Amino acid sequence: MRAHGKMRCPGCYKHPKVCLCTGIEPQEIPVRLIIVQHPSEIWRPSNTAGLITRMFPRSCDLVVRGDPDGETKISKLLAEPNTRPYLVFPEPGAPEVGDLAAKGFSPDDRLVFVLIDGSWRQARRMRRRVEYLNTLPVVALHPAAPSTYRVRRQTRASNLSTAEAAALLLGRLAGLSGPHPALSKLFTEWIDRLLILRGIPRNPAMPSS
Fold this sequence. Notes:
By secondary structure, the chain is an alpha/beta fold. Helices cover about 35% and strands about 15% of the residues. The protein has one domain (about 1-200).
């Protein structure tokens, strides 16, 4: 497959030297993830949503903002009986996912967590403008360590890529001290490959004092 004149994997849409599709072992998780993606992210080589959908194909849905069929599907899914949906978003005052999980959920609840995939400006705009997003209860993630997503400039040290957010979310729900091990490992390997492809040192020298 070609995109913008470059060869891409037909599964993850990434450069063959970055693609990890053949090495990913699909896993099951006890919750459902929904990723709402900004259209500009579809062909970005630095987008991480594909890592999540490839690792959890039976438990993750990805819909592109503005796709009427996809958004209708998601709206119906969120309205299904016993569904308990949450939007994962850094909103001030929102409860932390780990605190919520510690209190426990009803065994009858079908937990659904929605993540927005895009730049922070795009995410904030979608949060306000997309009806099925701005009506959901919000939960937050408070990472203990800064993002390792060095392929894009971050506006805040606490910002996470979509894959990092999903890994931390799943780790918190499982009562782990860190992120989901398999997804975190996949993300790290993918970052290493992308940095090598771009000629960026994986361990840049610390600035001198």
